[in-house]
Amino acid sequence: MGLLLLSSVSRKPNESMRLIVTTFFGVVLGFLIGVSFPTLSTTRRNVTSALLPGIDFAYEDKKTGLSTQTALNVLSMRNSSSAHNASDTSKIWVRSNPRGAERLPPEIIRAESDLYFRRLSGNPKEDLTYKPKYLVTFTVGFDQSKNIDAAVEKFSENFTIVLFHYDGRTTEWDEFEWSKKAIHISARRQTKWWYAKRFLHPDIVAQYDYIFIWDEDLGVEHFNAEEYIKLVRKHGLEISQPGLDPNGVLTWQMTKRRFDHEVHKETEERPNWCTDPHLPPCAAFVEIMAPVFSRDAWRCVWHMMQNDLVHGWGLDFALRKCVEPSHEKIGVVDAQWIVHQSVPSLGNQGESDNGKAPWQGVRERCRNEWRMFQDRFTSAENAYYQSLGINPSNSSEPH
Predict the structure, then answer these.
(1) Average of pLDDT values for 55-70?
(2) Under a CB-based contact definition with an 8 Å cutoff, are residues 237 and 332 in contact?
(3) What sections of the protein cross the membrane (predicted)?
(4) Cβ neighbour number for residue 156 with a 10 Å cutoff
């Protein structure tokens, strides 16, 4: 018992000394922390305030108890947002680019194309030693190959030649040397306006000054394409056709060849057929069998063509909408004339319906399409004027 008491008494001085030393160091450490904390806090507030000027951290610390960790979290979110915005601005978005190509840099965009052939090897810059300036298309069946061969001879190397095959026969054309350099597109029982709408987009044929869209049954003995274009340029024609042999099949007065003119732009039709001498069929009018379009006129005409009205009937009366003044920029070239042979080849491609011959069904659809096109155009014009608060009947635009 005496030993235990002695041991306990002897340990008290050691524990007391340890407590004193610990307390001393605690006081010193607390003093040092107390002296340094205002500087650290001020520095942090200054840095944070510079980065987040919208938040007064001195005020928040006192009034709301916003912790240092919360401030750092907000700072981290701000930095993350800044990085995200920087990433967004590095992405390309050009509203003036063609629709769908806004994400591309403008310098890489090639909105237009062409029908020029390219090689499979070598330097692309050396592919084209010559670029044709004009385009001629024929919608053909092989039964008319001799006639097309004669027609192609009238077109120089300045022309790209495209054949649209409605009978599916393409390889037989290899007997003609020029055919090996032509472009062949085949779809059975389709019309030239079906082909034109699908394969002659304005951006595809933009390299050509003039586009000829011709039938297969045209006699060209008195026609030369280069001379024709010279006259078209001379007289400022945007839409034109060669004059038709007046001794041929029934045709409009406007498109008949005149012997005393290079070009004519107006005519006199049968009584009561023309309500205005500047309107079709007395002016601003060519037929759809052998039209020739300038690049700019074709851009408009292509958009006016309907996807489902494939015969093009009625289109010739509306062509004037694409040039202004139409009675001056649409005309017939008399000095270069052709013969319309009226071969009913496309009619024979039709199908019998309710006992009708194939050609009868085709002709009936042609007439129906003419009426449908007129109705659509009139409705579209009326809707446009009404959207502007204009009474269509009071519009100065002739219908």
Answers:
(1) 46
(2) no
(3) 20-40
(4) 13
State the pLDDT at residue 249: 67
All structural domains of the chain, each given as residue ranges with its CATH number in brackets, are 134-392 (3.90.550)
Residues in a beta bridge with 7: none
- 3-state SS assignment for residue 213: strand
CA distance 287 to 251: 9
| The two three-digit tokens of residue 294, written as one number | 């300038």
CA distance 78 to 59: 20
Collect all residues with Cβ–Cβ distance below 8 Å to 51 and sequence separation of at least 6: 75, 78
Chain-centroid distance of CA 224 in Å reads: 33
DSSP code string of 302-349? HHHS-SS-TT-TTHHHHGGGGSSSHHHHEEEEEEEEEEE----TTGGG
Helix (H, G, I), strand (E, B) or coil at 277: coil
Name the token pair of 42: 């001020």
Q: How confident is the model at residue 47 (pLDDT cuts 50, 70, 90)?
A: very low
Q: Which helix (H) or strand (E) holds 365?
A: helix 358-387
CA 14 – CA 24 distance, rounded (Å) = 15
Token pair listed for 97: 């680019």
The residue type at 276: D
| Dist CA 267 CA 270 (whole Å) | 10
Q: Two tokens at 290? A: 């052998």
Please give the share of the chain, as a percent, with pLDDT higher than 70: 74
Alpha helices in 1-156 (DSSP H): 2-51, 57-63, 68-89, 145-152
Do β-strands 263-264 and 210-214 pair in parallel, antiparallel, or remain unpaired? unpaired
